[in-house]
Amino acid sequence: MAMTPAPPNATGLSETPQIEPIRIRTLALLRWFAIGGQVATTIVALAMGIDFALAPVLTLIVASAGMNLWLFLQPPSRTSARRAVMQLSFDLAQISALMALTGGLTNPFALLVLAPVTIAATSLNLRQTVALGLATMALITLAGIFALPLRDANGAVLQMAPTLALGHWAALMIGVMFFAGYAHRVTRELSLTSSALFATQMALAREQRLQHLGGVVAAAAHELGTPLATIKLIAAEMEDELSDRPDLADDLSSLRASVERCGAILKSMGRAGKDDLLLRVAPLQVVLEDAAEPHAGRGIHLQIMAEDIDIQRDPAVIHALRNLIQNAVDFAHSRVMIEAAADDTHLHVLIRDDGPGFPAALLARIGDPYPTNRRSSESRKGYEGMGLGLFIAKTLLERSGAALAFGNGDPGAMVEVSWPLARIRADGRAALGENPSHPA
Predict the structure, then answer these.
(1) Per residue in 307-319, pLDDT tens?
(2) Structural domain includes residue 437
């Protein structure tokens, strides 16, 4: 058994809506902060008597402010990745040029040249981030080689020893790779988690809608049963009383047949609506059978053994158990065992299969969203997803107060779900409450 949930499109889940990589307003705000810092640094340097190419520096600062004003005058629009790359490239070129005009690697503010690529790593894809990273490394190198020197108030050149300059260059190169790589990795994991949580919410909402629909169907079937029984009784009496009217006999026979057909339909609807939203308590065996039912006809023998206790019938718990059972069935050779028992403090549900078991390298990551890549998953027969189903199941079960443990047996994989008995047990003799109302 391995991580094998159905992909979102197979379960009717909508894809996470695509959002802007980064807002132009955010880039403009960050640029205003940079412009303020550049102006303040220029003023302080002049106050200290440091000599540098003032006119070109001011020209670059004004160019950056002009870019922001131009963006401000543009009509509001969504930001594309290409547009974001162009804006970050402009910032990179402006900061690199300032660095070259103010001492290059001897400039203590040279570290700020890493800002554009770090922002790119948090908002753009890997290819675009790598391109900006390489451009940053190239511009840092050029700024270091062709830098105009800084001079103090006495006219002496401010410079560092060649070894220190080389070390500063190497530190900036490492900084480009580390900050960009770290920011991109963290952002990607947050994005995957956000997408998985979105899928979890969609799965739970879908399950609750189905439960509610089942409750309305069951209530309607129950309420319509009485008037249909009355119609059937009256039709039978009329058929007896009008036995001497052959011209009406066929009509009455058709009426009785239609009433019986309606009764059979309502009886079927009542069975289909057994998942009444207000049926909040059910025997443990029934809940497990409900969770396993969609996978009962897939050629794998499902055996369920549960204690005779009543528990809360939570659609989220049923959906989560269904995902765990699906994983077991997907990788079982011939058999899946579901065992449930309670002790003095906890209820334990153990799901075992006779398949190959969880990959040892992934045991520590089971329950994380997308712990495997699609290419490796497609190479395994029966593998349909990338761990999203287990993430959904784990999230829903933990919300219900359960703790999960994953492991391998001999043979096959094992998943144990444990609830504090006080959180899951319920009184099966309590009133069910009123059925949902429906239009007459």
Answers:
(1) 888 888 887 788 8
(2) no
